[in-house]
């Protein structure tokens, strides 16, 4: 085991943080292709996706989530209430497509931005799922592939936030 891994393992024991080795991808926008990497995470799903969002405006991400639902993936999304209730947003589009969406207004801001796929892969960071975040802002994403220990913690939090949210019902607006 490398020296850094031993230090991380000791740190995790002292702080109750889960540490396990996995493949990790790190990207920074606007210079890297962060949107492509998020799409890769979503497209890797076979069974489940749990996603927590604040600002969510990227059509490509929405289309990938609808495609995942159509191939039988259980897709659950929880998003910030105030950022999504007053306008026709991607979350409303997804609700209209039958995706299970809940809006959470239990906090000043539900500012989480992460995706858990198949309870083993986690994407997280500062990146909102928006055009500005991927093309103009200085943002970061971290993906922990095949790491069920970390994914379990994120999945538990995602479901907690999802379960305390309000269902966003389909309402077609033209």
Helical content stands at 25-40%
Overall shape: it is: globular
The averaged pLDDT comes out at 86
Radius of gyration over all CA atoms, rounded = 16 Å
How many strands in all? 8
Largest sheet: 8 strands, mixed
Termini distance?
58 Å
Category from helices, strands and their pairing: alpha+beta
Order of helices and strands: HEHEHEHHEEEHEHE
Q: pLDDT below 50 for ≥5 consecutive residues: which ranges?
A: none
Q: Strand portion, in percent?
A: 15-25%
Strand order of the largest sheet: 1-7-6-5-2-3-4-8
Helix count?
Answer: 7
Topology:
Elements: H1 3-15, E1 23-29, H2 34-43, E2 48-53, H3 59-70, E3 74-80, H4 81-84, H5 90-96, E4 100-104, E5 114-117, E6 121-125, H6 131-135, E7 139-145, H7 148-163, E8 166-167
Helix pairs in contact: 2-3, 3-5
Structure description:
The chain has 174 residues and is an alpha+beta fold. Helix content is 39%, strand content 25%. The protein contains seven helices and eight strands; from the N terminus they run H-E-H-E-H-E-H-H-E-E-E-H-E-H-E. An eight-stranded mixed beta sheet has the order 1-7-6-5-2-3-4-8, sandwiched between helices. Helix 3 (59-70) links the parallel strand 2 and strand 3 (74-80). Helix 2 runs parallel beside helix 3 and helix 3 (59-70) runs parallel beside helix 5 (90-96). The longest helix has 16 residues, at 148-163. The model has no long low-confidence stretch (mean pLDDT 86).
Task: Provide a compact summary of the structure.
The protein has 174 residues and is α+β, with helices and mostly antiparallel strands. It has seven helices and eight strands; from the N terminus they run H-E-H-E-H-E-H-H-E-E-E-H-E-H-E.
